[in-house]
Amino acid sequence: MKSFWRLCISLELCLVLLAAVCGAMAAGSFRLSGEYAAAINAMPLLAWLRRAPFPVSWWLWLCLALLALLAVNTVFCSIATVGARRGRAGLVPLLAPQMLHAGFLLIMIAHLLSATGGFMEQVVAFEGDVIRLPDGRPFAIGSIGVIMSPQGMPTGISSELFTAPNDAAARVTITPNHPWLSGGYGVYLKQAEAVPHRRALLEIHREPGAAAALAGALLFMAGNILLLYLRNGAREAAPEADP
Fold first, then answer.
1. Mapping DSSP to helix (H, G, I), strand (E, B) and coil, where does residue 200 land?
2. Domain of 194?
3. In this structure, is residue 49 part of a structural domain?
4. Where does residue 158 fall: left (phi above 0), alpha (psi -120 to 50 degrees), or beta otherwise?
5. Counting beta carbons within 10 angstroms of the beta carbon of residue 234, is it exposed (0 to 12), middle (13 to 18) or buried (19 or more)?
6. Tally of domains in the chain
7. For the segment 192-242, what is each residue's pLDDT rounded down to a tens digit?
8. Contacts 24+ apart (CB under 8 A), 202-205
9. Is residue 184 part of a domain?
């Protein structure tokens, strides 16, 4: 039983699982092609998995299983570390590795939330069109701007959105790097054309895991900074301890 527990909390198991995830993703990436390859970036991950046949999606199912084991390994490692070091080290040396673990787990949870509850849809819109978000709220397309270079290449695109049906003053202008964010949804401008008609390609996104991903990234970064600080302090103190 002790040997099994040591395996569950070992760094070696973590590295083997990470290598297996990378191998499965590499195998799937090279083999994936055709309509399923085009669709995987156009819908939430679990929606794609439900539609794709197992011979096409096996590598992603394997990745999910390996990541679940990796999450269990991380939790068990944190439990073992806290139990072994409690009372022997200060609060900061005890918490720094757990911040890394918590950040990693939050990032995994964020991807799971987006994979299950995310939304993505592309819409071709013309000036004057009215589009509804998935929650039913409408917005209208105003002017679509396309700036052309002397060589005939587009150098800038934008689209005006009327975000309230009864308020003409409620408007925003979106560009590729400045979407409209409202109620958990984002409206992104992907492409625009001036001829033969002014039209824009809009992408509507919902990422329910965005907040968890941000929190996880901040925790992971803070944990890394604390560990670097502690190790740097240990190096500076080591010569002073020598006789």
1. strand
2. 119-206
3. yes
4. beta
5. exposed
6. 2
7. 988 888 999 999 999 999 899 999 999 999 999 988 888 776 666 665 544
8. 202/122, 202/123, 202/124, 202/125, 202/131, 202/159, 203/120, 203/121, 203/122, 203/123, 204/119, 204/120, 204/121, 204/122, 204/123, 204/133, 204/134, 205/118, 205/119, 205/120, 205/179
9. yes
